[in-house]
Amino acid sequence: WCSDVCSSYLSSGINAEYGDEMIDVIGVTRGHGYNGVTYRWGTKKLPRKTHKGLRKVACIGAWHPSRVCFSVPRAGQYGYHHRTEVNKKVYRIGTKGDAKSASTPFDLTDKAITPMGGFHHYGKINEDFLMLKGCVMGPRKRLITLRKSLLVHTKRVALEKINLKFIDTASKWGHGRFQTDGEKRAFQGLLKKDREAME
Fold it and tell me: Least enclosed by CB within 10 Å: which of 19, 104, 130, 141?
């Protein structure tokens, strides 16, 4: 019952909820494990002949105060942190099974949002989707939380209506010359494997 109610709410209410809005994204960043100060904080490497290593902080503080300050770079956990990114503009809301989800008024080609060959380490988009401006924390397939912005937006950038002209669906694996399979077949003509399949 819960899944039916939630799915029906999402499918019917997502356009009204998030269309042309700024939203916040909450999630956990990509984990990098235990790292040193050079990678973690970007500190400068010490000279080549430094005793006991050069990817270190040369001095971690004065004699007094007799403790290490919080602002001194130290080695430790890098990534896998809980983060909230605010003000992500919603560019498009797509529905499941829409074969024209990547079409626009300026590009009338019938094409779905999935690029040729699928997304890296994800595959095809088979469900409803949300296209945001900018990046989202975490690796592929990690759960994220979307919420309506807590601020009252008054700037033109936040209030503008989005009208996309073109969505690139070329392959993300190679050079990406073609937008659809039909376009690729029309350019390449009949291939040997197609001829063998017909025989």
Answer: 141
